[in-house]
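tool_log.txt
---
The assistant was asked to compare two proteins side by side. It first ran the structure predictor on the initial sequence, then on the second. Raw inputs and outputs are pasted verbatim so the downstream comparison step can read them without reformatting.
(1)
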Amino acid sequence: MGKEKKLTEEIRFIKKSDSEYPAILNCYERMPKGLYLKGRFPDPDRKTVAMIGARGCSNYGRTQALHFSKMLAEAGVQIISGMAYGVDSYALKGALEAGGKAFAVLGCGVDICYPKENYYLYEEILKKGGGIISEYETGSPPLSWHFPIRNRIISALADLVLVVEARKKSGSLITADYALEQGKSVFAVPGRVGDACSTGCNALIAQGAGIAWSPEVVLDELYAGSYVCKDENEEAVNWRIMKLSPEERKVYQCLQATEQSVDGICNVCGMESRLVAVCLTSLCMEGLAVCRQPGYYCRMEEWE
């Protein structure tokens, strides 16, 4: 009973005529005349990414959702999703773990945590300064037809929509369609050919969606190519180093501020060239190393 009471506290109804109503929603048709809110709306002065994907995501989808959301959140980007099972939940979880702001647009009343297993996420979103949003009045159950409709709000509140995993027929693709109608950028994380959960993402890429092969690609799009990695704090850099594999960390420790050849790095590390090359590629994608000329690498000095 205590939890149920807590879920009904501090609920506000923000009318379209109220100054607190998100101004961005007024730019699009078919937006609600009011929104129920717990917490706050996304800050309009900060970038927001909608991260969406398959409920029954694979381990790859789960890993990528956490990775992208953490990196984006560490760069100051707000994360919004529908708080469904799978990718939505991991996207919010990653943002919160990185100390970022997270927001959820529900397909039920804001006084109902759906799915109920996400109660911890629901509370953490509010505790850490985010918001729970819905166009449905309190007490409204999570009816199936509510979810595709609420997706237009998710995309409208975001500057960019990132699809992490999606099947051929997916609610995530409905959100992507809304985003395109609204003139938003749509990016998709590429997946392995033949994986059911990646069919939708690969199809989006084939149709012209941006290829989200790293968080930096998304950040470049958000900041029109002006995003600079050196603005990231030391804790964020340390976190990136900590999550490296043992081999990647070993190669990273061998890198210097001045350029070294791959053969030179192999000699210092005592590792095979093929494995070193794989590690160097990964380090470059993480923004920890840079290749300024073919075959030569150095540590990314801006991070230090």
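(2)
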Amino acid sequence: MEARNILEQVKNGQLSVKEAERYFKREPFEELGYAKLDSHREIRSGFPEVIYCSGKMDDFLVSIYKRMYEKNGEVFGTRADERQSEIIRGVLPGVSYDRVSRILKIEKPGKERIGKITVCTAGTADVPVAEEAAQTAEYFGSRVERIYDVGVSGLHRLLSRLDEIQEANCVIAVAGMEGALASVIGGLVSNPVIAVPTSVGYGANMHGLSALLTMINSCANGVATVNIDNGYGAGYLATQINRLAVKGYEKNRMSEQTKGAEKQERTDNSG
């Protein structure tokens, strides 16, 4: 249960102060012996803990998924394979697995999604990393638009969607080969661009190193780069930016409404 929900229940008389105090006095993690589940991460950072599935022993993975689902009513894992998805489905039938992004999750229904993040790829081979980014951002409550296969070898494809890209609070640019897409987008938009190099490419691509070097040496302003194939990290960071943007819009709107009400009051009084 989230801290805000606890406080609202206390305020509404649905939960006693003593019960709420017991919740907040719990250890900030749950000791499982082989893992320490960070149950207070969402309180500290605004994001719940996510499971990195690759390499985990089956028993450990099952136990972690069960405990996190029991505590939060949802659970999100990255880099899972199909065998792991079947194992988890055996104990949590509601789990869904996406073969493209390799995300294994149970998500609360009816989740509100705010703002706008646009995820762009240079080619279709970059889509798995892009989907990891997009679905991560969606899980964390962001509205995501996907614009795929708009790499620099056919720049007209990107320019045909430029209006939509410029409307986003944050753009994620996913590219392998030489990784030039992030620089091009960075020169066309006013909001932050998160560059994601992928390991897509021929020999001199060096499993994504050439794209990484291009992106971190970008001459475009406002471009930040995450690690090779790190779609999850890009989706997380983009959500942080998107949340701040939405909060800023709401604050400005409330300020304008207050100013309008004050102006109307002065007009009424003067009349």
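---
observation on (2): The mean pLDDT is 88. The first helix runs from residue 3 to 11.
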